[in-house]
Inverse folding.
């Protein structure tokens, strides 16, 4: 009897480890569901919107300008932030606020990205903490799931003029 119970316990443990590994790989490499909070990405993403974030793009270095990404916060590694990629390594970006009279520019260093929220007046982003290492990117948001009346692919940046081609 003890042998039978021990055998079942080990089988259960084995299945738990297997399914745990499968779940880890799915969430790490394929993607997952994310609830966005805060006003920094309005009007594109509202507070409490639910989105799908795919993770293959970051592993294959396929992140492009204009993509919305989930990133480990440079200020608080325990939290994630949702921002739009404005510049990739080597790109020239405007580092000043939109309301500043004199505009300042900088180049994004190797291995980094420049991130900004769509709500420029209410966003803590690269204009505050500088370029973000590419390794902090967790995934790329590709689909809004909730609310259902807004279901679908995300729209282009309302701040398209901030993308510089120099």
């Amino acid at each position: 009897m003890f042998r039978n119970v021990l055998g079942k316990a080990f089988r259960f443990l084995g299945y738990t480890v297997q399914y745990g590994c499968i779940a880890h790989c799915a969430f790490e490499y394929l993607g997952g569901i994310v609830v966005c909070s805060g006003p920094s990405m309005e009007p594109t993403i509202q507070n409490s919107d639910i989105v799908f974030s795919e993770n293959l793009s970051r592993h294959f270095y396929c992140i492009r300008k204009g993509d919305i990404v989930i990133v480990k916060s440079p200020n608080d590694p325990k939290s994630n932030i949702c921002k739009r990629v404005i510049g990739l390594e080597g790109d020239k970006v405007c580092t000043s606020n939109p309301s500043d009279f004199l505009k300042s520019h900088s180049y994004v260093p190797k291995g980094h990205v420049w991130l900004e929220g769509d709500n420029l007046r209410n966003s803590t982003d690269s204009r505050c903490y500088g370029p973000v290492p590419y390794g902090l990117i967790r995934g790329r948001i590709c689909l809004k799931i909730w609310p259902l009346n807004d279901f679908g692919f995300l729209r282009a940046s309302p701040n398209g003029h901030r993308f510089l081609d120099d």
User: Anything to note?
Assistant: The mean pLDDT is 83.
